[in-house]
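Subject: complex prediction, re-run

Hi both,

The earlier run crashed halfway through, so I resubmitted it with identical inputs.
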Amino acid sequence: MIWRVDVFAKNKKSDLSLTAQVRDLGVYGDFKIFSHKVFFLDSELKKSDIESLAKQLLIDPVLETYSINQGIFSEKPEDNQIIVAYNPGVSDPVAISLMKAISDVSVDVRDVMVSVSYEFQGLEPDQISYIAPKILYNPLIQYPLKYSKLSSVKNLSEFSGNDYEFSLVNVDILNADDEQLKEISRTGCLSLSLEEMRIIKKYFTEKKRNPTDCELEQIAVLWSEHCAHKTFRGLIDYQECNDKGEVTSQETIPSLLKTTIMKATKEIASSGCVSVFDDNSGIVKFDDTNNICCKVETHNHPSSLEPYGGAATGIGGVIRDILGTGCGARPFASLDVFCFSPWDIEYKDLPVGLLHPKRIIRGVVSGVGDYGNRMGIPTVSGAVCFDKRFLGNPLVFCGTLGLIKKERSFKHPKTGNLIVLAGAKTGRDGVHGATFSSQELDETTVSLTSAVQIGNPIEEKKLTSAILRAAEENLFNAITDCGAGGLSSAVPELGQGLGIDVELDKVPLKYKRLNYTEIWISESQERMVFFTETANIARLTEIFQEEDVPMTVIGSVTDTNRIVLNYNGNRVADIDMDFVFELPRIKKEAVWVNRAKIKADIPEKKSYNDDLISLMAQENIAPKDWIVRQYDHEVQGGSVIKAITGIENISLSDSSVNRPDLKSQKGVALGVGINPFYSDIDPYWMAALSIDEALRNVVAVGADLTKTYILDNFSWGSPDDSHVLGGLVRAAKACYDYATYFKTPFISGKDSFYNEYTVGDKRIIIPGTLLVTSLSVIDDCSKTVTGYFKKEQSLVYLVGLTKPELGASEYFRMLKIKEGFVPEVDKTIALNIFNAVTKSIGRNLVLSCHDLSEGGLAVALAEMSCGSGLGACVFLDEVAKQGSMKDYELLFSESPTRFIVEVEKKNKDAFESLFEALPFGLIGCVSGFPQLVITGTDSKEIVNVSIDGLRKSWMKTFQEFR
Amino acid sequence: MKPKVLILRTAGTNCDKETAHAFELAGADVSVEHIHHLKKHKQLSKFNILCLPGGFSYGDDLGAGKIFSLEFLLWLKSELENFIDNGGLILGICNGFQVLVKTGILPDLNFSQTVTLTDNDSHRFEDRWVYLKTPGPDPTIPANKIWLKDLDSVITLPIAHAEGKFFADDSIVKIIEKNKQVALRYVNGQGVRGGYPFNPNGSINDIAGITDISGRVFGLMPHPERFIDRHHFPFWQNQTVTAWGFIIIENSVKFFEKGG
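This time it finished cleanly. Structure:
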């Protein structure tokens, strides 16, 4: 029987945050929304037993009270009430925790369901049904409980239906023509092209049999863009044209990855690289006993459909990448970077099927926070970019750093090993995630409901504890995580070159209706696979039991070089590894047409006070402390430079510094570079500038380029569009050129394609976006500096060369000017500037240092003032510049490789001697007045604003999210 | 005597390592154990200090610290009573404080919950540095007997929680105030009541931490283990630093070094 326990607050209050969200929808008037928790317990216990359970587990006796009834509904609910529950088969973390607590008190409850009841006052039923799916639940994972359907339900198992009954499905491709092959790929959600389907047909024709559905899925997963990186590894016919459309160069690129990014790493041959582009993350040297590893992932497509769950599982997934590196690394810091649409769009203008940016922003931010916080991994770095084109395709990048013992940095899979699946039980979550992310989104995408995963951070936290204990005792010899494709990518990849034999019926299920193929491809979260010797099982079981983590032997490693899958004694798949890992080489066309360089000329102004104040309020400049604060950025106790610094900790640091080993002063600086806007002019310079920015950010705290490594994350539109792909080629070429020159190797990377959306006949493609993550080993954390002014009277230097480069700059975009030169990175000057800044910080000559990025010099100065409350007097005449420049160019140009450095007077000579032969200027000093004063080239004051005024403008933009 | 410290963890505990590090640095002999281990091996009596560290035990899925509290009482209640009777100290930090109030160990060792820590007024997780007022020099105040010895009248520590709002019925709050059990209060930089964000969660009477009447059991939302090194302080580059968190932890270790 079903017992229903409603838990009420003693002091019933309208939910103000829900009310605000409803008003955002354009629903006004005097209304109230109340919510309370409802628990359903499937049990034959007496009411009095349920009552004591409620008192013990379900309420906070100081604040809450309860009522107990029988059935899902004891009576027909009022039409102003909605009860929201998770769809059957979707994991609910609270229900899992409740079952654990119930088992602790040893009472007999078969199952539980947890839901929230909402009650509206002052709204009509049609308003409620308009609001509910937009705010109260996401139909992809949740649904409202309907009285008409559920009033007679007697137990919770009725929700999930009958168990699965085995029946082997073969797919007839031997007799399929091209049209039918395409149809098989389409209806099966396989995302395989006709060319690929033909190759599969040929393989099975030789085998003289049809494939099973499971075999087709297996191939689709391993050949998916997500797992196989077909674009980066495939052939590309590339053409470059001038602005008149004439072809200026032509080449066939055998593999974009191998000829640009990996080539850079190979040529640099850094002695610091331990394992790159090989494992789940890149590994570099740290100290005598440990290495560090880093991986950055994208989780764009899931986050566009279910922002909270998509972002949460994004961070959850990349943490498992670290855990699954070598033979187990300990995650110690995370970063997140988001690209959103501005949120001023009206609901009525929102294309069908898209979520409002506000909901995406709130969902993504809290999804990353809730997961990262519960994992106890500090989120220490990040960035946020805003552009309208991210409306249908928000970008969510999640990265994690790990510490790994030197001797555990490699995997050693062996024939005869047992294959162990550890962690959460397998459900329907995320079936088809890998193939789904390899296609464009459109209005029908929402029907692919199960492609969304739900995270349960506590499962992952327990799993992490158990895995790290097992790693410490060397109880396994290879490990990987279940990410995209679930077991179907994890197990074959780990057993590649050997062979695997798996019993699918051994996999513990949380949803009994899964068939054998779904078991194999499910992307249920919080699972890891490892290989071990039989002798280790007893000790492993002991550890996993103490940590309360399921662990099951599901098969063994063979020497057949085949993927063999069985379900209750039935062979459901048997394919050659050589075939599935040999990717079809598909050729794509790429074209890049250079844009004519157009100079922008705008009239000069007498005062730039208003422009500067407006710039401070731009979404890309206004402080993101409200996001950082929702993340536990101090857990693990290693923070040296936090993500936010300065007065009231509002200013974003250029990069964070953390100590992974609390007994040592050695640390890791973590920075990012991202600026998709430059792609509108030339993705080559976009990529060069992103690398420059990522390096500026670590150098600004004192990092040394010789101990700096970078990661690439490309998020792009459809690579099947030759112009989109042409931009990608440009960007990848810049990655090679600049990484090689700076000798900062790429150690890991990831790409995400098809970030575009079609509304009617309008195609919206995101700007080509490259996130560059930089990490740097810092030998002595006590020498690092932050980016806000420290001391009155100290000297203010601008190092680096300023040029009239405002194309796609924050200033020009604010003024809606499309012309202008995109900033270009001068390699030689850049490298020398980086090295000189590093030296000056290392020699303790620097009080503060901040790089110039969005908004140029004026914004950088304003940020340093806002962070400290100290003003500055600055003279543009002293800026090292190219030719004659106008004041607005000097103020707002985004020329790269520039820093503002604050130096005490006594260190003037020592500091300047490091910059001999380099462009720099002593541009002013920190003043005793809270006023930023900038004198233009003709000796007139062009900026004179109070720090308070700047701060107010800076702080107001995200007011509604604070 | 070098005290033995037990850092007790469970699923979702996440500050155990740095808390252990802090106690080690202060000179203690530290063990970190899972509650399942303690349930099986029953060895609480071996220890002098029991510390419940921060984290999200069981995801705080049924309310902060709720399931950990349940297990704590189900499996360890009598051992715990002996531990307290034998002069052991208990420190609950953040999630640990939530466990201490939900088990009813705080405020009065009654094992029946009378106060709570609930959702921040902002309804979200916040990590920020706060100013805290200590009870002043009076040595008879329970917190001054051990944990808060030698602290300035205003100190700083970071908080990081979603459910830190201290709440209880007026009658209970009156008793706690009358007994001078309030150890730490949120204040502004001048040491006076400041409202949000100085009181980051809306705690009644700005309460950030309390002790039992003896001063042996201390629960607080701020994280002392996150301020044991000068580099933890956000302004270490340009301000003088006293690592207040370290002093609090060291005080408990010194208490035993001086004979308990």
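The first strand of chain A starts at residue 2 and ends at 9.

- K.
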